[in-house]
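Box 3.1 A note on notation
Throughout this textbook, protein chains are presented in two layers. The first layer is the amino acid sequence; the second is a token string describing backbone geometry. Keep the layers aligned when reading.
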Amino acid sequence: MKTLENALLAGKQLLKEKGIKEGDLDAWYLFSHYFELSRTQYLLHSGAEITETQYEEYLTLIKKRGNHIPLQYITREQEFMGLTFQVSEDVLIPRQDTEILVEEALKVSQDKTVLDLCTGSGCIIISLAKLGNIKSGTGVDISGKALEVARENARQLKAEVLFIESDLFSQLTGKYDIIISNPPYIPTKDIYDLMEEVKDHEPVLALDGSEDGLNFYRFIIEGISRFLKPGGYIFFEIGYNQGEAVSELLREAGIMDIKIINDLAGLNRVISGRYKKEEEPFT
């Protein structure tokens, strides 16, 4: 006879043997996900009997995690900005650090038209549509499979967002009040040094920012004059040491009021600025 407690203990042991960091916590998350139990429910019913099939199916999930498949790709979901997003191997897993990007944009997003480039799961533009009282939201990605995930997230979260398959601006027309992006920004050579969960399982298309990690910033910034309204805002997530380099690219494109926002670790995380109006002196 197998019990809930037997299953959880076995899961913890297997992840310990595989050397998974925070394996006990991951074993619990997968346990809670599979058996649909809260901690209180588990404590009240830990001795409850389960079937051999349930036991083996839970351990199948554990073995996937033991092979360094990210937890979110196993549960197929991730919380972001208080909302639950569906994820797959075709999209980058939404991260808490990216919430800083959304929080900064929320300060100026009311009644604005917003363009989210490299939208992936849609977590940024959907969060702005749900929380920011924006006028309209458009999400763009080169990956059709990523957009399938984004559209499903918008449907489940009842967010009015238009998603377009496009290589950045190539399929777009018109101008926007806000352009926001968490583009690929990791230098190619650094990808091989990332943890296994990232380099072996998350889409390289969403990670690789070219030799110096700055190519996508260059491409997007080149389009500012055609797609960002005068007086409009631009927001980027950036790498921990990219603030100065991206600031210079923005200044050269006529962006003013440039601000770098650090994360909780004190590292560069977000950069923002405003496109000068025609009558405005550049500062």
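The chain has a mean pLDDT of 94. The radius of gyration is 21 Å.
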